[in-house]
Task: structure prediction
Amino acid sequence: MDIVWIDFADPAFLNPLVLTLKVAGLATIGSLIIGVAAAYVLARWKFPGRDFLDAVCTLPMVMPPTVLGYYLLVFIGRRGVIGQWLQQTFGITLMFTWQGAVIAATVVAFPLVFKSARAALEGVGKQYENAARTLGLGEFALFLRVSLPLAIRGVISGGMLAFARAMGEFGATLMVAGNLPGRTQTLSLAVYSAVQAGNDGLANTLVLIISIVCVIILMATSKLLQPRF
Result:
């Protein structure tokens, strides 16, 4: 396997790296906020349509990325339900922008946070929450001061997996944000471009870098989930 040395100050490498970290970081924050909120609702309350909502939240995990990209086009594309409104009202276009890449990565990474957070929250003993209620804590304070701290390891592990998944996102990002060097080209898209150009050495190097980062994250996640005692 051919490997080439990369000048880490070269914009051809530095720009995709910085963009990848920015997209993955923002996507992780977004998926953590939405995923933990959805996990808490489904873990603590029973209501009609709960199983359907759980299936919808899990769907991006099993659906082909290109199908997710198509759904995003329907919603945030220039003629989409939300995209057209944003364009006409605020002059905002999400297509072929790094913000669109963040939305695509958030949707793809969201189920990893959701499933991990829900499992962690369901593992929190209800006796602790009931004791907190008797002390006068409201539901929001209960979540912040009792449920979330007790489930924090599962939430963090989900966030780490979401970051790794967002770093490697390709299909939905390509459909929504395109592959514009210096603007929307992440490391995964840079690998695609290198392969298309026949630059196997650069592609191998980029793949190796991404693989090492993902392995480190997976090892850290496994360590985090090990029993404390």
Summary: The chain has one domain: 11-60+96-225. The chain has a mean pLDDT of 88.
